């Protein structure tokens, strides 16, 4: 089996009128289209998207899974302006923006969400099946295409080896050498990366996907030891030395190795956590045809290989490897991983979100 394995605001201004009708030239209502065939084929979908002329995305940092290049490539390929809002926002911010900007031309057209937030808001998504839908394993998609996993990776510890000793276990982070140096990517009650970081700590301390208590307790100890750094890490904080140790997805940590030669990435095989992000269309977005074309692009060989160039593991990687369409150089450059990953189920993710909501603030407050 291929190395990719089964892994997870605007104010109160009055609504603006949408800049264009959702009806394509062929009389198709783009909002209700569930495949390119509903437009009359891919060429007709492209034409309808170009007529809209714009696409609104949100919470897509340029350095996250290669989204900077993905956005520019899509824009250049189809001549569609991509408006990228709040690049450093989290998954809950995406949902908040969609609710607050509903009916406005600035509302997000598409979402890229962590598992817990995605599953709690499926009523906001428009079902759509891309041309490559059948290539995507069943466990990584809703049967109607209401949501589809797009890319994933493994939880890791990135660190500046010029500032701290080599990390060989999660427990190393409690050592005095890591005082004031360990950052977690986000708030685990709203950010998937952070929640999975807590799960990784839980696994390393005898917990499981059904028991996050040991993970929360680990971060309590980290805070008590003075090692927890309450700073949301970014490429800038890493490269400036402000956050010398970062718990985050391996593809985000690995991206820093090209910019900071002393940056290393450790994936704990005894606490291996895998996960995919969820891609969905905002059913009330202002550019429904462009949103659907964006999905087609992301799940095409070209889009999936662009994720791979960013160190993320695309959901269609196995099928593309078998077909010989995967970027083998980028694929072979992925951080080595050994072991069977723990991948929380939808039910476990929902339960864990509730647990974190009730216990996280007290642990690190």
Description:
By secondary structure, the chain is of the alpha+beta class. It has two domains: 41-152 and 275-333, Periplasmic binding protein-like II (D-Maltodextrin-Binding Protein, domain 2); 153-274 and 339-364, Periplasmic binding protein-like II (D-Maltodextrin-Binding Protein, domain 2, 3-Layer(aba) Sandwich). The chain contains 13 helices and nine strands. Helix 2 (67-78) links the parallel strand 1 (54-58) and strand 2. One of its GO terms (molecular function) is thiamine pyrophosphate binding. Residues 85-106 are annotated as: Disordered. Pfam families: SBP_bac_6.
The unreliable regions are: 1-20
Any idea of the CATH topology of the largest domain?
D-Maltodextrin-Binding Protein, domain 2
The computed structural class is alpha+beta
Q: What string gives the helices and strands in order? A: HEHEHEHEEHHHEHEEHHEHHH
Specify the CATH class of the largest domain: Alpha Beta
Major β-sheet annotation: 7 strands, mixed
Number of helices: 13
Total beta strand runs: 9
Number of domains: 2
Summary keywords:
365 residues; alpha+beta; D-Maltodextrin-Binding Protein, domain 2; seven-stranded mixed β-sheet; two-stranded parallel ribbon; 9 strands; disordered N terminus; Extracellular solute-binding protein; signal; thiamine binding
In short:
The protein has about 375 residues and is α+β, with helices and mostly antiparallel strands. It is about 35% helix and about 15% strand.
């Amino acid at each position: 089996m291929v190395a990719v394995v089964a892994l997870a605001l605007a104010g109160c201004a009055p609504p603006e009128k949408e800049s264009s009708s959702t009806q394509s030239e062929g009389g198709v209502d783009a909002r209700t289209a569930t495949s390119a065939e509903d437009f009359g084929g891919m060429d007709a979908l492209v034409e309808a998207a170009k007529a809209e002329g714009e696409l609104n995305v949100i919470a897509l940092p340029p350095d996250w899974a290669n989204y900077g290049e993905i956005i520019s490539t899509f824009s250049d390929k189809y001549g569609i302006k991509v408006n990228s809002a709040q690049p450093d926002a989290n998954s809950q911010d995406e949902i908040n923006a969609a609710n607050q900007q509903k009916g406005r031309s600035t509302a997000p057209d598409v979402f890229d969400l962590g598992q817990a937030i995605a599953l709690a808001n499926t009523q906001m998504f428009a079902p759509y099946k891309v041309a490559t839908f059948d290539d995507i394993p069943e466990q990584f998609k809703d049967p109607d295409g209401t949501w589809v996993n797009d890319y994933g990776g493994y939880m890791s510890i990135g660190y500046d080896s010029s500032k701290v000793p080599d990390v060989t276990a999660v427990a190393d982070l409690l050592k005095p050498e890591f005082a004031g140096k360990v950052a977690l990517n986000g708030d685990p009650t709203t950010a998937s990366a952070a929640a999975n970081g807590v799960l990784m700590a839980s696994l390393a301390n005898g917990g499981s996907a059904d028991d996050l208590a040991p993970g929360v307790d680990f971060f309590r100890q980290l805070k008590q030891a003075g090692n927890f750094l309450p700073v949301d890490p970014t490429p800038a904080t890493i490269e400036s030395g402000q956050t010398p140790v970062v718990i985050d997805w391996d593809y985000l940590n690995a991206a820093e190795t090209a910019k900071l030669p002393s940056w290393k990435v450790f994936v704990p095989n005894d606490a291996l956590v895998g996960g995919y992000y969820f891609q969905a269309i905002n059913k009330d977005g202002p550019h429904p045809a462009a949103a659907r074309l964006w999905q087609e692009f992301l799940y095409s060989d070209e889009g999936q290989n662009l994720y791979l160039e960013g160190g993320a593991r695309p959901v269609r990687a196995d099928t593309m490897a078998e077909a010989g369409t995967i970027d083998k150089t980028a694929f072979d450059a992925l951080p080595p991983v050994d072991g069977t990953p723990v991948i929380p189920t939808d039910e476990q993710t929902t339960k864990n979100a509730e647990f974190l909501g009730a216990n996280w603030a007290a642990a690190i407050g």
